[in-house]
Amino acid sequence: VAEDGNYRAVGDFLEKLRAPLGVWLVNGNWEHWRPSVRDFDVYHLPGIKFLNNSAEKLVDGIWIVGIDDVLAGNPNVQKAVSDVPKGVLTIGLFHSPSFFDQLQIKFDLVFSGHTHGGQVRLPFIAPLWLPDGSGRFISGWYESSNSKMYVSRGLGNSILDIRFLCRPELSIFEISN
Question: Which of 27, 63, 103, 106 has the maximum number of C-beta atoms within 10 A of its C-beta?
Fold first, then answer.
C-alpha cells in the first residue's frame, strides 16, 4: 500500500489474479500503519480469501494458515492453527520473514515477503538496507527444522521508488501432496 493508501489500486490488481484453489491475502505492516486511509475494502473482494490468524483447508491433507504481521499487527499462531488437524501439510503465510525464526509451531512450507529483496543491491555484498522485520532473510529459499520458507522480492518498493540489481517478482508455485 503506497504512502497515499491507494487501496483501490491494490484491489484492481487482486481482482485480476486467478488460482485453482483461491487467492489468499494476509496483512502486512502497511495495512496496519495506514488503516485510516482505507477507502476500499480489499478484504471482501470476490475470489479473495483473507486469513488473519486463521486457517482453511485447501484440499484433503493440505491446510493454509495466515498469520497477522509480526512487525505491526497482532500475530496469534496458536489461534491460527487451532483447527488444523495433525499430520496434514501446512502452508504458512505471513508478511515479515523474521517471524520464521520465532515460530514455536513449524509449518511445512512458508511464503513471506516484506524485504523487497533489498531493493538496491551491489554485487557480492549484502543489501544496503532491509526493513525492520526482515531478520536474516533477503529473498529466495530458507530452511530451518524441516520447514522451508520462500521470501519473495515482491512487486513494489519501500521508502524509495527505486530498484537496482533486484528485479521485482511475482512468484508462482505448484504444490502437490
Answer: 27
